[in-house]
Amino acid sequence: MRIALLTEGTLTNAQRGEGGWCGRLVDGLPEHEFRLYRLLPADRPAPPTGVRGLHGVHELPMWGRRPGGRGPTALRRRAYARAYGELVRALVMPGERAGFGPALYRLAELGREDEALPAFLASGHAHRVLERVWRTPGADTAGGQPLVCDVLVAADLLEQCLRPLSAPWYGTGAAGLGGADLCHVVGGGPAALPALVARELHGVPFVVTEHGLHLREQYRGYRSAPYRWPVRALLLSFFRQLTEETYRRAAVLTPGSEYDRQWQQRCGGDPARTRIVHEGTTATGRPAAGKEPEAPTLVWAGALEPGRDPELALHAFARVRAELPAARLRVYGEEGAPGYLAHCRAIAERLGVEDAVEFAGRPDGPAAAWESGSVVVFSALAQRSPRLLADAMLSGRAVVATEVGVTREVLGPTGLLVPPRSPRALATACLALLNDHERRSRLGLAGRLRAQERFAVEPVVGAFREIYLDLVSRYPAFPARPGTQARPFARPAEYWVAGGTTPAPAEQAPRAAGPALAEAL
Amino acid sequence: MTGAPVTSTPATGTPATGAPADPVRELLDANRDLCEQAVDPLEIAAALEDSGLAADGAARYRHADVFGLAEELYARVPRRPPTREPLPPAEPRRTLPLAALRGAATHLLPLLPATTPGGLPGGALALLLGAGAGLLTARRDRGREREDRGTEDRDPDGWDPDGRDPDAPGTDRGERAADGRAPGRGPFPWPAPAQGAGPGLLLALLAAGDPGAALAAALGGAGAGWAAAWLRRFGQRQGSAATLGEFRARLRFALPLAVLAQLALLAGLGWAVAGDAPATGWAALLVLGTLPLPAAVVRDAGRPGTAAVAVLTAAAGAALLALPAPAHWLGASPTGGLAAAALGPALLLAGCAWPPSTGPGAYR
């Protein structure tokens, strides 16, 4: 099967060794042909993919300086302006959300015909269209009318977000998305744009895998972004519409956790087409941590910033120490917010525990960090990714965590959950474990087994093997005419076995013949 | 022990007797700013989750999940923009004298060899020095641009305690530098040295005919630099205009005014330095001294190639007219030929500069 992996990653996984998540997937499914399509920042050199066994890597510069190119001719400019106006209308008019998808596909179609889309979106004509629609009565400008500077900034950002529409990736050639049997979007966001267009153009189904939702990160990130209210509203509306359109069109959604699934469902993901696939990690093969340290030690790891709430751990530790004077706390991690380390030190001093708290900075590796303690403590206010929790569980140490985000589903019955912002509850849980060696080791072992079962790489690979096969069996071999029903099992299974030298019939068939053939079959 | 919360807080779900009738009110007061500035209920939901509120926390406020609670908060608080919102960034005022100094330096530099050795080697040296000065200015601009954009690189090795996902793109926190300038045209910025070389050659030619006028024109480069920087700053500060039409109305007479001011400055300089120059000398002084201003505006508007070609055309035309044969054949004075050759490109450039100078795209 020919699979197009679409991702927007500045450091796509190179640093995780073995090519990260995509690398593990490609390694695990050698029977399929993978091609990687990456969206990269334009102003930095592209890092290596780190993924072995790819049949091709295609890159598109995004986020930065616009690539050169001429604008549309005067005649076609009107069509561009109309489509762009429709798109903006769908973003700013609360009642016209339905026009988003059609406007997007229309822009993609226009851009494919004359490759003038980026230049048009950066031109004064686009600015005028944007301003006219944005200032129409009925547009959602409750937080302030857009000014000229807002129009410019929003137009720039929209132009950058829409760059994948004019990527040279469409078409039914070997390197085109139309030649793929399915697209796999890793990470969501603008990376889903090519998949949406390929689905519209060529009828290629796509799968969306998200570990940490793109949309949620945008909502979090834009709160501190240096943009005025109207720009934030427009851009977040764009990301929300894009996400909803993606979830609506995706054949299968594979969020990494139940917590992410709830968000996806909130944004229009169909529960029937959603399947949770936990993120696999190679750390499952790691041996369990060795002997516990002599002194009863709590370990805390994470970036030192208010969101991870190391203060809670310090306050809880002060209570633990009052009961258990030999106890120690080891804090791993570097400053995430400037001056926060000094703040934490000051708190430790104020609580009178500075001699028992060690700010150990960056450890040699996560395994070394967990090994240095008897109990691992997570005190964060929000836990969006299961990765660090799973890593701690794999060490075989008992875990105490605040009950936020993914912790309940990841820990399950193998750890202690406490409410956030409650030093007393956290201290009680830590003391209960520190005083009971048998319970500690029992929970630690149970946690390790649970994490090994849920976060191994093999189940991920197996899940996607099934999903891919299930998906292509439900889609016809040739692009169906929009609106016609896709016929399952229109082809025998052998059809999908990727041939080595003989090109698949889908490549030979001219595009125009597609619907006719699909009908004839 | 199971996953049940180890907690001593009262059971959630139903408010205890004596609990406030409107439990959301308290949360609303604590998060009023967030709710007023939110663009979407999901933004409130994300913020509530960041502050440690989970599903069972939402139950305390009689909601099944955080989303329902966020929608109630969004509906109950009217939108209000923050009182102090970031306005478009403009260049600081201290860049104006710097720009003036730079303008004067780039014009005085080629004048030195043109007057001291003089002749053909002096002209060639002036040309080279002008190109070098133009290139230096351009490199400084590019360096500033890179600083503006900043770099954000994440940790390249395996320790990622924050659980940030390198595959997940959204972690960049939405801070995309909005950079709508025209695209770069290849690795070497040829328009920059060309735009420096043109005035260098023109000044060398003028110095051969009328050294006083040449000095006045070179000193006028300071005014051109100042005026171009002022225009850029003024345009940037007008980003707070309500509509594009209003912006255009405010900027319509900015460039003509800047050109008039530059002409007045040149007249003053000419009167002080080269008061006894002939009429053709005056004409050459005014044309040459004003040419850098529209050239800078056109360059800033994203068409450095156009500016460079116009300046080079003027220089080439002037050099051609200064050759012995055409000069003899036309019977014109050297300064007259110079003024005639530079006038056309200068007028064309001014015509090219005016329309984009009234649009906001030229000031970024």
UniProtKB/TrEMBL annotation, chain A:
Residue ranges, compositional bias (Low complexity): 503-521
One Pfam family named in its UniProt record: DUF3492
Record-linked InterPro entries: DUF3492
Record-annotated DUF3492 domain positions: 1-271
Parts of the chain that traverse the membrane: none
Residue segments, region Disordered: 500-521
Gene3D superfamilies, per database record: Glycogen Phosphorylase B (3.40.50.2000)
PANTHER family for the chain: BLL3647 PROTEIN, GLYCOSYLTRANSFERASE
Protein name per Swiss-Prot or TrEMBL: D-inositol 3-phosphate glycosyltransferase
From TrEMBL, chain B:
UniProt keyword annotation of Membrane present: yes
Keywords carried by this UniProt record: Membrane, Transmembrane, Transmembrane helix
Bias type Low complexity, positions: 1-22
UniProt keyword annotation of S-adenosyl-L-methionine present: no
Superkingdom assignment: Bacteria
Positions of region (Disordered): 1-23, 139-193
Transmembrane parts of this sequence: 118-138, 253-273, 279-298, 305-323, 335-354
Composition bias, Basic and acidic residues: 139-179
Sections of the chain in a coiled coil: none
Protein name: Integral membrane protein
UniProt organism field: Kitasatospora saccharophila
